[in-house]
TrEMBL record, chains A, B:
Residue ranges of domain ANTAR in the record: 363-424
Domain NIT: 30-284
SMART domains membership: ANTAR
PROSITE patterns xref list: ANTAR (PS50921), NIT (PS50906)
Coiled-coil portions: none
Organism, scientific name: Azoarcus sp. (strain BH72)
Record-linked InterPro entries: ANTAR, CheY-like_superfamily, Nitrate/nitrite_sensing, Nitrate/nitrite_sensing_bac, WH-like_DNA-bd_sf
A GO molecular-function annotation: RNA binding
Protein name: Probable nitrate regulatory protein
Length: 433, 433
């Protein structure tokens, strides 16, 4: 029969198992971030290739295709290993479903490339297909963040997800800006899209900063001093403030170079972030394993001392109070006297009791922190779904839907997520209109 | 290399594994509900035994001790099996920690019984110890509800948890009322406690009804017609409206009998609820296994037809749109034409696509439903913690803390949970006062 301390040890083993799965998932996230970067580069090269009717970037594009394919093989391998090693992982249901979608989309890539090769697609169509595949890969990262069981790792994943999302929006901004500058003017729709992409990036990087650890924040802030970023800001201003349709100089090459320099900086920060994430997993696991060893050693000592469950009955009250659902938040520690009479001597008796108290406190803290992080993810889900609902029911574009939500929030002096929730609550009304 | 459909199958396997663990947990919950019932009866008998200085219920009490011990052995066995079969279960960290507390408290029971036997304790002290052990057991049920991965089972667990909590409060009400009636008067504090226990029961049964399935609701409503329940209501009215301290007739025996009849009715409903819960687990698992078999059969067919990932590239766009984080809520189904050109013929190609769509839709629905159920659990956690904070920082009793929160909510026309959240946000201020 397992003792109380035996169950504390079992709880620790569960925690370690969850962390091991999380480490595998984070390794996958690193691979996914590399594949996304490759696809973003291939999208950019394909864009130039198609826009120039095949006269530019033919070699660059086929080199990039080979590079993407190499990373794709690695990521497929990571997917397979996840399915083998973590076949029973918590949250696997959602994560594996996302992966199924991604695989389906990856399988369609060769045909997409053939169409690009043969110039059978416009740049917008090609961009759209790549962007949707990338969105599917980002959804895998989102799911990984949503199922993380450790608050610090969950924070790091939320931070990384927002960073990757921001980087993807930066890539889309580069494409829209380059096309408009090459055409010599920004139409009203393109300007609106630029404004939306810029603002959406701001939000993503804001959330990245909010959840990132201080080192990463500093790396990110320091990276903002690159001269290309200042130059990009000037071109952004021209792009968004010149009256719609009025001719602008064709600075598309310079725009592309500056935007690319900015994205390359992002890639470096992303690399730091994924490495820090894996390091965090490793450290958290090592700490948990050390604690497990300590628990197990204590269990051995207690068993040698005549059985591990020999705390005096007076401890009952204080113990159950901590465990109970109505336990007060600041329950006082058990008095020293509690352990004076037990067979173990005060030292060991106190140790078991303290272990339980520490554990209860730690679980409470972890649960609070996870709730905070998940709230951020949940707000994102709610806003995205409200946008989707408005797009489907009112025929709005994504930008228009977002603008409507934000404007309503400002008018009513409410938070964006509150307006989104209210919108979803009206789903039936909106759908039946 | 696993195909997209292969990952859908893996997702289904994960789901089934989660359901299998949930089935074991629900079996444990059933055992816990039996043990709680035994402890409630032992608490009642011990109370009478102690209040009569050993002259009443001596035999009844020792019979009940034996009955409790028999169930305790079963529950300890269920704990052990859980630790063996589900050593790596999701949420095991929290559940096992709760079990550790319960075991510690159970180990102290023999000493508690010795003190009762020797009349070394007052009835209040004995009641308090039993109540805290029961609170620890209820915390196990709460944790089981909080970690459930299936919305329907999660609803059933939330419903059952609230029912068990309500039944426990009914047991406490029986004890308070019996003691006061035997003493011939209700002091102001006892009246306040009675009012609190009655109101808290109402809330619990309200939540039970909200989350219970219709059959259980009907069973519960029909059970309310017992004549003892009407009689109890009359005695409740006398208990709570007679001016504090004024003599009342000693109807303690009748009160005890009526309250016991009501609790026995509850036990029958609880029995129905736990059986329905296990049945629900079984049905959900059977349905998931059937679906898995269908997926697996489709996978075999596709592999025989030349590989499972042969959907036409045109499906890419629609597929990734469904998977993407920015997917609109009401994305339209893929047109029939999508599958006309693939090697499988329209039927099989359509099947895989539909599987993915169904899965995405189902995950979304499950996630929404789970969020709704967990919100109810979370509100409970927040209110309990705010109460605990007020108790610790202001030296209030549980009733006073609850009353303060409720009064504030009414004055400010806000929801109870909002006031509780605001209270927790002020935690540092309250603690430093």
């Amino acid at each position: 029969m397992k003792s109380a301390l035996g169950f504390l040890v079992a709880a620790k083993r569960c925690e370690i198992h969850g962390l091991e799965q999380l480490e595998v998932t984070c390794g996958l996230v690193k691979g996914v971030s590399e594949l996304v970067h490759m696809l973003q580069k291939e999208r950019g090269a394909s864009n130039v290739f198609l826009a120039s009717r095949g006269s530019r970037f033919a070699d660059k594009r086929s080199e990039q295709v080979a590079a993407t394919e190499a990373v794709e093989i690695q990521v497929r391998d990571l997917f397979d290993r996840l399915a083998t090693d973590s076949a029973r992982m918590a949250g696997g249901m959602r994560l594996f479903s996302r992966i199924a979608y991604v695989l389906h989309a990856l399988n369609a890539l060769p045909a997409l490339r053939e169409q690009i090769e043969g110039l059978h697609l416009g740049p917008e169509q090609a961009t759209h297909s790549f962007s949707e595949l990338i969105a599917g890969l980002l959804a895998v990262v989102f799911e990984a963040a949503d199922t993380a069981v450790d608050p610090a790792i969950s924070r790091a994943l939320v931070s990384l997800f927002n960073f990757m999302q921001g980087k993807e929006l930066a890539g889309q901004e580069r494409a829209v800006g380059a096309a408009a500058l090459a055409a010599g003017r920004f139409e009203a729709g393109e300007q609106q899209r630029m404004l939306h992409l810029i603002e959406a990036q701001e939000r993503c990087f804001q959330l990245f900063i909010e959840f990132a650890d201080p080192t990463l924040r500093t790396i990110w802030r320091n990276a903002q001093v690159a001269p290309e970023i200042a130059e990009l800001e000037r071109m952004r201003r021209i792009a968004t403030t010149t009256p719609a349709g009025r001719p602008v100089d064709d600075t598309s090459q310079r725009w592309f170079d500056c935007a690319t320099a900015r994205i390359d900086v992002m890639r470096q920060v992303e690399d730091c972030a994924t490495n820090a994430l894996l390091q965090l997993c490793e450290n958290t696991l090592a700490a948990a394993r050390t604690e497990l060893a300590e628990h197990a050693a204590l269990l051995d000592t207690l068993e040698a001392a005549g059985g591990p469950d020999v705390l005096p009955p007076a401890a009952l009250s204080a113990l159950v109070e901590r465990a109970g659902v109505t336990a007060p938040a600041g329950a006082p520690a058990a008095p020293e006297a509690l352990h004076a009479a037990d067979g173990l001597g005060p030292q060991l008796g106190r140790s078991v009791f303290e272990l339980m108290q520490d554990q209860a406190q730690r679980l409470q803290t972890m649960s609070d922190e996870l709730n905070t992080v998940r709230a951020a993810l949940n707000e994102r889900k709610v806003v995205e779904r409200a946008k989707g609902l408005l797009m489907a029911s009112r025929g709005l574009s994504e930008e228009e839907a977002y603008k409507l939500l934000r404007q309503t929030a400002m008018n009513q002096n409410r938070r964006l997520v509150e307006v989104a929730e209210a919108t979803l609550a009206l789903a039936d009304v909106l759908r039946s209109e």
